[in-house]
C-alpha cells in the first residue's frame, strides 16, 4: 500500500502529456535572507500569482503552507521543504520538518537538501537516508535539492558535469526519487548527467543565467536533452508578470514550445492579462 501511495502522489507531480514536472519554489527566506528577496514580499501575493499560472507543484516550508495555502487547496501539489541551510552555514542543510507533517498537510512530496563534497556531506547524507526509508515506508515521494557546493569545490567547478553527476548519482543511491540540481551549461554535458542517474533529474533556475533569454533557452535545452522538469524560484517571482511567465514556462515544458513561441506568448499575456485562456 505504501508503494501505491507513492505512485499516486508521483502521478500528480508529473504531467502525463510531457512526462515532465514543473514546480515553483518559494523556500528561500531561511537560506538566503528575506530582505534581498523582493519577489517574496509579501509572500501571499506571490503565491497567488504563481498558482494562477497553474504549475504542477509549489515548494514551500510548513509555516508558509499553513499561512498561505488555504485558498489554494488542491490547485497544485505541495512539495513540503523539510530542511534548509542558512546564510551563516551555506553548506549545511538542517532538517526541521517531518514526513508525518507532510502527510497531515496533504503534500505530494517531501523535499530535503544537501551540499555535496564538503565538510557536512556525511551528516546530510545520513539525514537523507533516514528520510528516504521513512518516505518509502509511508508512501511519500522524496525530492532532493542536491548541489556540489561543498568546501572542496571551487566556485568555477560547481557547474562542472563531473561534480553535478556525482551529486545526482549519490542522491539516487540514497533513495531520492526526484533530484533538483544545477544545469551544467550545455545540453551535451547535461545529457551525460541524466543518463547516469536512474532517478528523475530536474533543474533549478540557474545562478549563471542573467536574462530572460538565458532562462528560456536553458529551459528549452534542458527539456530537449532529457531533463525531467524544472523547479525554479527567483527567476519566476522576480519577474514583472509572474503569472505570465509561469504560463510561458509551462508551455515550453509541457507543450513543446520553442523559445520564440514562448516569448510571443509571454508578450501577449503581459499585454492582455488573459491568463485563464492558457
Automatic annotation (TrEMBL):
UniProt xrefs under Pfam families: DeoC (PF01791)
Source superkingdom: Bacteria
Task: Check the record and name the SMART domains matching this protein.
Answer: DeoC
- PANTHER family, sorted: 3-HYDROXY-5-PHOSPHONOOXYPENTANE-2,4-DIONE THIOLASE (PTHR47916:SF1), FRUCTOSE-BISPHOSPHATE ALDOLASE CLASS 1 (PTHR47916)
- Write the protein's name: Fructose-bisphosphate aldolase
What organism is recorded for this protein? Brachyspira catarrhinii
